[in-house]
Amino acid sequence: MIDALLDNIVSMIYIILGGVLISWSVHFVPVGGAPAAMAQATGIGTGTVQLAAGAGLTGLVSAGFMMNVTDNLPLILASGAVGAMIMIAVTMIVGTWVYVYGVGCVPSSAKVKVDPITKYRQDLYVSQGTEGHGLPTVSFVSGVIGGLLGGIGGALVYYALIEVGLKAGLTAGTSSSVTGHELVGIAAMFAIGIFFVNAVIPSYNIGGTIEGFHDPKWKKWPKAVISSFVATILCAVVAVIAISQLGVI
Questions:
Q1: pTM to 2 decimal places
Q2: At what angle do helices 48-67 and 2-26 cross, to 10 degrees?
Q3: How many helices and strands, by DSSP H and E, does the chain display?
């Protein structure tokens, strides 16, 4: 009984840590929304939640594949991180091709005079009346960092909930009407839900568009992380208790 309680507490800690990482990662992803779709703002032309969820869910899938191979947590987290990084990197580079070769604009930031990575001038190429356009190097690097953090966070949440589900199924044995596969599926649903919660909270904190870690809005991340910390505690308690109890129905 005590061992099961300790295991659940550890799982909750993993979930909370994962939620915080997800929330923090959203601030790194360059989001331009509708203005970016018209090349009037820097970033990818879609919303914060969609991008965060896309990168995070890719990380969940990657972590899930790795869990079929090994139970080694560092490898599972690395797999989730790499999957999310590849997804967001591909999205950004394809977006850059569209901006450069389709729209015909130079990727440039209106938030900084000089790109912090390449040291190239930015203000010379920003069109009047816009907030920049395309995905300059600093935004690309920031997005990859966001994918790394989001992938690790998503994989950590998924791993913790899957472990809770598997242990609940093993504890119940044949006395439960819920199979191990069903418990894993339910755990995955909770993981996706927790990811969306922690993608929505920072989107309100950002309030529209963000270019990356060089954007002044990036400094607002502690507010979102604290809010996500509190929200994830509640999510972790509900998820772990619900999944654990399903195993003994």
A1: 0.89
A2: 140
A3: 7, 3
Residue 81 and residue 55: Cα distance in Å, rounded? 9
User: Please, what's the b/e burial string for 117-151 (b: 16 or more CB within 10 A of its CB; e: otherwise)?
Assistant: eeeeebeebbeeebbbbbbbbbbbbbbbbbbbbbb
Residue 150's nearest CA partner among 35, 236, 228, 71 is 228
- Given pLDDT bands bounded at 50, 70 and 90, which one contains residue 13? very high
Amino acid at 28: F
| Structure token digits, residue 14 | 């993993």
For tokens 């904190």, name the residue: 205
- How far apart are the C-alpha atoms of 100 and 107, rounded to whole Å? 7
Q: Tokens standing for 185?
A: 């599926």
In which residue are the tokens 């209106």 written?
110
Instruction: Enumerate residues 6+ apart whose C-beta is below 8 A from 201.
Output: 23, 224, 227, 228, 231
pLDDT tens, position by position, 104-141: 888 998 888 899 999 999 988 888 888 888 899 999 99
Q: Taking each helix axis from N to C terminus, what angle separates 48-67 and 73-97, rounded to the nearest 10 degrees?
A: 140
d(CA 224, CA 202): 5
Backbone region of residue 108 per phi and psi (left: phi > 0; alpha: psi in -120 to 50; beta: other values): beta
Look at residue 231 in the predicted model and tell me its pLDDT: 93
Per-residue DSSP letter, 113? S
The CA-atom distances, in angstroms, between 222 and each of 100, 199, 218, 227, 234 are 34, 14, 9, 9, 19
